[in-house]
Design brief:
The chain is α+β, with helices and mostly antiparallel strands and 275 residues long. It has seven helices and nine strands, in the order H-E-E-E-E-E-H-E-E-H-H-E-H-E-H-H. It has two domains: 64 residues, Alpha-Beta Complex (Type Iii Antifreeze Protein Isoform Hplc 12); 130 residues, no CATH class. 29% of the residues lie in helices and 22% in strands.
Length: 275
């Protein structure tokens, strides 16, 4: 009798194990079917800020990272590649962890409607003519450091009525502006993608950032009708040596010669020598 009870208990245990296994199998199968039927969330890479980026910050590599984000949460115009962000200037504060939007960035060297963001503190931007020889041959570009030379004429443009000054030293070119309408006409005329340098330079302008007093000085010199030129500096040259103004007397002293008397009147020395 006891042996019979033992077999019954064993049989009941086997039945219970089979029932439990069947229940577990059905639960796991149901969960797998649920996961299989659930929609897969599609993601895309976006560029986020690893730290707070205040206004005017130029973005560097250690300030940003690429993260995957569900498409439905990605803002419009979000940057997806670090190459689109590096070297750009922040136009508004960006918080740590925030997705970086391309429309909140500006190039520090290109002409944009946001060029005011590139102006150093206590400076203003003034537009200067671009008709000098360096510009006509296409040698200057945004970011170049230049000295600004100016020749003033007192009366006519004869040598003895002219003085040439090194007006400002170590000035950075903020931008070079070619009017869009003119550039489009030239592209259509030339049949290529580059405006003609010789033509567009006539209406082009060099934008430089200078202190307000220097801007007023440049304005006066431009209004005086003189001739403006630029000289290009090495990119790491920030020196400001004294440069003596050049006039006809400087030329005579430096090269040790006397101007010939072409006026037909006797000089003081000639009068003193007599016959």
């Amino acid at each position: 009798m006891s042996q019979r009870k033992g077999w019954l208990w064993m049989l009941a245990g086997v039945v219970f194990a089979l029932v439990a296994g069947l229940l577990v199998y059905r639960v796991l199968s149901s969960a797998a079917e649920t996961r299989a039927s659930a929609p897969v969330t599609e993601t895309r890479p976006v560029v986020i800020a690893l730290e707070d980026l205040p206004l005017r910050t130029v973005v560097e590599e250690d300030m940003i990272a690429v993260r995957e984000m569900p498409i439905e949460f990605i803002p419009e115009d979000a940057a997806q590649d670090v190459k689109d962000v590096l070297g750009k200037m922040v136009m508004t504060d960006i918080n740590k962890g925030e997705v970086i939007l391309l429309n909140r960035l500006a190039s520090p060297t290109n002409v944009t409607r946001n060029i005011a963001l590139t102006i150093p503190e206590e400076h203003v931007v003034i537009a200067l003519p671009a008709q000098d020889l360096l510009n006509r041959v296409g040698m200057l570009k945004p970011g170049d450091r230049v000295d600004i030379l100016f020749s003033l004429y007192f009366g006519d443009q004869s040598p003895d009525q002219t003085i040439t000054l090194n007006v400002l030293q170590d000035v950075t070119i903020q931008a070079i502006v070619v009017p869009p309408v003119l550039a489009a006409v030239e592209q259509a005329t030339n049949g290529d993608n580059q405006p003609d340098q010789q033509t567009s330079v006539l209406d082009s302008a060099i934008l430089v950032a200078v202190p307000p007093q220097d801007a007023l000085l440049l304005k006066y010199l431009l209004d005086s009708g003189g001739t403006l030129d630029y000289v290009l500096r090495p990119p790491d040259d920030t020196s400001a040596p004294f440069v003596e103004p050049v006039d006809i007397q400087y030329i005579e002293d430096r090269f040790e010669f006397e101007r010939p008397n072409v006026s037909g009147t006797l000089t003081q020395e000639e009068i003193g020598e007599g016959p």
